[in-house]
Write a structure and sequence with these properties.
This is Peptidase MA-like domain-containing protein. The chain contains 13 helices and five strands. It is α/β, with parallel strands linked by helices and 304 residues long. The chain has two domains: 132 residues, Collagenase ColT, N-terminal domain (Glutaredoxin); 131 residues, no CATH class. α10 crosses α13. The chain is globular and about 50 Å long. The structure holds zinc ion. The site of zinc ion (ZN) has 4 residues, from α7 and α8.
Length: 304
């Protein structure tokens, strides 16, 4: 929000009511940041090395230790693709209160988010909060056999992927924003063990409901096009399908090749990010993003 408003080109197009909205928004953010810092200060913490600090509620000690234990495996898998030499320090915050989790992270009640990566920190729901989030879902989910602790590990794998992608971008001196569908597709890929070779995924038939990838590129675009829980579910699923098929048909290296050519250098202010990514995709995959999406959707469609 702040970035859009501070952009000089758009400044004179902002109405007064928008300015008031912005100020209110800013005031809300400042107070939520303060509440968030106070909350984090009230938690226990553990730091297994000088790169990672985990903040947790006393009763979640076992869970925090379990997460610390699985992190080396997660890093090993991610490094096969991203080969990050010196990942920057990261904080992991485990929330034991749903309201606090939503308030600190600006999450609307309609969003079924179990975790998020923001600016060098991972915010995640603990077991109790995860359960509460699942129970408010409007989707037809089978919660009977759900193992919440397993879900939390998958959430960690998902958020950790966002972190490692940022590490890869930083080490290659690239901007830290990448197309959102690509970012989420990779995060779901690692969070649902898409890298396992002996698992066949049963993807949903999204031939008639998928959102064009061109509409899921920017951060704000993604938010706007995935407001309902159903749309959000579709967006994550199709992003995963795309990344999964890219890797299966072209090999893991295609991901970093697309990024290395498709993301502008950190100091580059003139390049159109969308165009550069789209061109790199075409070059590495031999097909436009649109054509590749259609091919994948048709492959998993029940009515071919
Ligand atoms: Zn994500």
């Amino acid at each position: 929000m702040a970035q859009v408003l501070l952009n000089e080109n758009s400044q004179d197009r902002i109405t007064n009511s928008e300015k008031i909205e912005f100020i209110k928004d800013l005031a809300r953010k400042i107070s939520s940041n303060k509440a968030s810092a106070e909350y984090i200060n009230s938690l226990d913490s553990l730091s297994p090395n000088d790169r990672l600090t985990v903040y947790y509620f006393t009763e979640d000690k076992e869970l925090a230790e379990k997460l610390v234990k699985v992190i080396p495996e997660i890093e090993q898998r991610l490094n096969k693709m991203f080969d990050v030499k010196e990942p920057f320090p990261i904080e992991l915050i485990l929330y034991n209160d749903l309201d606090q989790f939503r308030k600190s992270n600006d999450i609307a009640e309609s969003q079924r988010l179990l975790g998020l990566y923001i600016n060098k920190s991972i915010h995640m729901a603990n077991t109790k909060v995860s359960e509460e989030i699942y129970q408010t879902s409007s989707l037809d989910l089978d919660l009977q056999d759900l193992n919440y602790e397993e879900e939390i590990i998958h959430t960690l794998e998902h958020e950790y992927t966002h972190y490692y992608i940022r590490g890869f971008l930083a080490e290659n001196n690239l901007k830290e924003d990448i197309p959102r569908w690509f970012d989420e597709g990779l995060a779901v890929y690692y969070g649902s063990e898409g890298y396992l070779t002996d698992v066949e995924f049963e993807f949903p038939d999204l031939k008639n409901s998928a959102i064009p990838l061109q509409d899921l590129m920017g951060y704000i675009e993604w938010e706007k096009n995935t407001e309902s829980e159903t749309a959000s579910d579709i967006a994550y699923n199709e992003s995963f399908m795309m990344v999964y098929e890219l890797i299966k048909t072209k090999g893991e290296k295609v991901i970093t090749d697309i990024l290395l050519k498709g993301i502008p250098k950190a100091q580059d202010l003139s390049t159109n990010e969308k165009t550069q990514f789209t061109e790199s995709f075409l070059e590495q995959v031999g097909m436009t993003m649109d054509d590749f999406q259609n091919q994948v959707l048709t492959k998993y469609s029940k009515s071919k």
